[in-house]
Amino acid sequence: MDTVKPMARPHQTLQKFMHLALGWICVGLGIIGAVLPVMPTTVFLILAAFFFTKGSPRIRHWLISHPTLGPPIQNWEDTGSIAPRVKLLALSMMGFTLGAAIVFAAPIKILVIQALCMSAAALYILTRPNA
């Protein structure tokens, strides 16, 4: 006897599509972040894995199983840890970005906001366990 799969409700289909689209956007931003020193990579990949949980478990599995992209996501999901090399890279890029803003004479108001935001992010990164 044939079993008929119930059709997905329209809002479920839209929700799945949105999770899938947001996941791919985050993967794209993560890859851009791997090339550009001023954008993060791991944060976007962790977000992509989150979105793919509901959008496409198959793509999520591919992402977390990827030999290059997967380990930072798995470290974060398993223990909330960040590899020391990644911490150093993140802090270096923050310092480089703030230094560039100073060199290019950004307004003091912008420099203060940037320094405060980066300090908070750096503190968060430094307080995570090492992978």
Automatic annotation (TrEMBL):
Metal-binding found in the keyword field: no
Keyword annotations of the record: Membrane, Transmembrane, Transmembrane helix
Transmembrane segment boundaries: 20-52, 88-105
One of the record's GO cellular component terms: plasma membrane
Protein name: Inner membrane protein YbaN
Species the sequence originates in: Pacificibacter marinus
